[in-house]
Amino acid sequence: MEWHLALYDGRKMLFLLSVFRPVGYDHAKWITPEVMAEIDRLNDEMVAAGVRVFVGGLQPPSTAISVIQKGEGAQEAATGSAKEADRFLDGLWVIDVATVAEAQEWAQKASAACRADTEVRPFY
């Protein structure tokens, strides 16, 4: 797959690494001290490599406020996720790397540390 991206500094690209969990996932049950230690090690590795721009974990979808377009400029705010889905966005990293392959390598490390599916997506 060839990706056509504008390089913002002439040499590196920004990518979003998204961590997804299944609906009903219980952090208290699955995010053990061992898992947290692996995520901390990954964050330390990203900082040491100079690729981490931002990282954040998200609270459960039930804490979200969704603004839904109702047409003709009308909107409605609702508590919870805007979309019914079988999984939800649980956390993310923004990384600054030279290639798509490098972004994929970090996503694989994130997937292993978080024990979750990850998605790599480039910024424009």
- Could you give me the name of the CATH homologous superfamily? Dimeric alpha+beta barrel
What's the helix-strand series?
EHHEEEEHE
Q: What is the count of structural domains? A: 1
Quickly count the helices. Answer: 3
Tell me about the biggest sheet? 4 strands, antiparallel
Query: Which residue ranges are poorly predicted, with pLDDT under 50 across at least 5 consecutive positions?
Result: 1-9
From the spread of the alpha carbons, the general shape counts as globular
Give the termini distance in whole angstroms.
17 Å
CATH architecture: 2-Layer Sandwich
Report on the architecture of this protein.
- The protein has about 120 residues and is α+β, with helices and mostly antiparallel strands.
- It has helices spanning about 25-30, 35-50, 100-115; strands spanning about 15-20, 50-55, 65-70, 75-80, 85-95, 115-120.
- The protein is about 30% helix and about 35% strand.
- The strands form two sheets. Strands 2-5-1-6 form a four-stranded antiparallel β-sheet, covered by helices on one side.
- A hairpin with a 2-residue loop joins strand 3 (about 65-70) and strand 4 (about 75-80).
- It is globular.
- It starts with 12 loop residues before the first strand and ends with a strand.
Compile the SSE list and pairings.
Blueprint (H helix, E strand, L loop, with lengths): L12 E10 L4 H4 L2 H17 L2 E6 L7 E7 L2 E6 L7 E11 L2 H15 L2 E6 L2
Antiparallel strand pairs: 1-5, 1-6, 2-5, 3-4
Helix pairs in contact: 2-3
